[in-house]
């Protein structure tokens, strides 16, 4: 298998799951600054021109959640449970994209990606909007995690890897994580995993 990635937000979860599972993947780094994600050979694998992409034999799979599920299913891991919890994982995937990582990703873009790629100053109106939306979603997750160690059931699942993706960048991205103690405790628990703390191969430069 080949996992195409770059040291930006979404590939973090896929790389972390691959490392956690010790998946037999060859990591292929794409330099976004040089436009390597827009090369014809890569667009043939992922017409969106985004990262990550997983190639497993004849299968070219894009979208982080799908890649995580494939990696976990391939080794029959409980990260992708084969019981009623699977529906809960899917629910949190959906909620995450609609409500949690979307504003977190916007703050990541404004405060980290813009300066990294020379895209100008942060848009103050967008920062205000995203901060408000993130706080509203974080309040929901904080309530859910009050008496739980993980998002689904009593053990780690792919939902945790998906939901936590922006939180390692909370300080630099001005994500108000400290306002939500249950979310913060849960992410500290995620940080106990080496695969979460250091998900990328060593050639990566911190984003």
UniProtKB/TrEMBL annotation:
The organism's place on the tree of life at top rank: Bacteria
Pfam families the UniProt entry points to: GST_C, GST_N
Keyword list, A-Z: Transferase
Residue ranges of every copy of the GST N-terminal domain listed in the record: 1-79
Presence of keyword Transferase: yes
Name this polypeptide is given: Glutathione S-transferase
PANTHER family reported for this sequence: GLUTATHIONE S-TRANSFERASE GSTA, GLUTATHIONE S-TRANSFERASE-RELATED
Family: Belongs to the GST superfamily.
Single GO MF descriptor: transferase activity
Species name: Rhodanobacter lindaniclasticus
Entry-linked InterPro entries: Glutathione-S-Trfase_C-like, Glutathione-S-Trfase_C_sf, Glutathione_S-Trfase, Glutathione_S-Trfase_N, GST_C, Thioredoxin-like_sf
Domain GST C-terminal: 82-207
